[in-house]
Design a protein that fits this description.
single chain; mainly beta; Jelly Rolls; 8-stranded antiparallel β-sheet; 1 helix
């Protein structure tokens, strides 16, 4: 249950700092016991009794040494994608006698073209004031700031360990993409969003538009085995309205559980709310007719695509069930 606290509290938001989404810990005051990179990894961290390093107990998180002088420890994180931050999760899972009693979060925008990040020269804005933390817990905080950021700084007082750090928000959708070029209109990093699906028993729907190819079978959208008539489906909102010219339905790692076939429908309605996309009265048009799929394969479609004009949303239908790792919808922006 604890693992779902942040997902429930920040439903519909993206973890802007996740390593999977391109986030990177770039600077730290101290990482004597455990490395800063662990903060952005998947999951909540694990605990292995009896596992030690030369410096002490092995911990799955970021942990600084015991501070014997005034001050506090900090870690600077470059977000994987620019966005408006709506909440953070400072997870102290497995840190019980060594968690920080307090933490704060600051944000800034850095020149991404520069490789020299001098923390002392950065101008920071406090987005979370110094706040108390509980040990072994997901510490959730809402953020009230409407500015887009690309870098954050986690401060812990005075020292200690944090297992994971999540930065939830909405991606800043760039408007400067050339309209005569093909781009992945559904990509997470471009501002695409997976809204709803009928089932995701084995794998989250949100994985469909993650960067890169999947790393394993768990890094995709997978439904349970269907024992009744019907099919499974998922609806996405595109980052930009556009005309789709090329489709990649990637079943990477799905070998004995890929769908037999798929179809894709499109809808052009930029005014519709995210909650209304399942309305049966909506006029979905067939973009890709029902087509056979191969397992563990990038299934590319181009000639099969129907010309239905500009779309703002798509619905991927899979027959009858199974797993798809990534969905790429390449098109030109309207």
């Amino acid at each position: 249950m604890e693992q779902n606290l942040a997902a429930a509290a920040f439903a519909g938001l993206i973890d802007l700092a996740s390593e999977k989404n391109g986030g990177k810990a770039i600077s730290v005051s101290d990482e004597f016991f455990a490395e800063k990179e662990n903060l952005l990894k998947e999951g909540r961290g694990i605990f292995i009794p009896g596992k030690f390093t030369d410096n002490g107990k092995w911990m799955d998180g970021w942990e600084s040494r015991r501070k014997r002088e005034p001050g506090f420890d900090w870690c600077v994180i470059k977000l994987g994608v620019d966005g408006v931050i709506k909440g953070v999760d400072i997870d102290t899972n497995h840190f019980l006698g060594n968690h920080p009693p307090y933490a704060s979060v600051e944000a800034t925008n850095i020149d991404v073209s520069s490789k020299d990040f001098k923390t002392e020269d950065m101008k920071w804005t406090v987005i979370l004031p110094k706040s108390p933390l509980n040990p072994g817990s997901q510490n959730l905080f809402s953020i009230s700031n409407d500015k887009s950021w690309n870098c954050v700084k986690l401060n812990i007082y005075p020292d200690g360990g944090v297992a994971r750090f999540r930065v939830y928000g909405n991606i800043y959708v760039a408007e400067n993409i050339k309209k005569n070029t093909l781009v992945d209109l559904a990509a997470l990093l471009n501002g695409g969003k997976v809204l709803v699906c009928n089932d995701m028993f084995f794998g989250s729907k949100d994985n469909l538009i993650s960067p890169g190819r999947s790393s394993n079978m768990g890094d995709g959208w997978e439904t349970k085995r269907k024992r009744i008539q019907g099919y499974d489906w998922v609806i996405l909102k595109l980052a930009h309205r556009g005309e789709i010219k090329k489709i990649n339905v990637d079943t990477n790692y799905f070998k004995g559980n890929f769908p037999d076939a798929c179809s894709i429908e499109g809808l052009n309605n930029n005014e519709i709310s995210d909650d209304a996309v399942t309305d049966p009265k909506l006029n979905w048009k067939v973009l890709l007719p029902k087509s056979k799929l191969k397992g563990h394969f990038e299934n590319m479609f181009e000639k099969e695509i129907k010309d239905i004009g500009v779309v703002s949303h798509v619905r991927l239908n899979i027959y009858p069930d199974g797993g798809v790792s990534r969905l790429r919808l390449f098109g030109s922006i309207a």
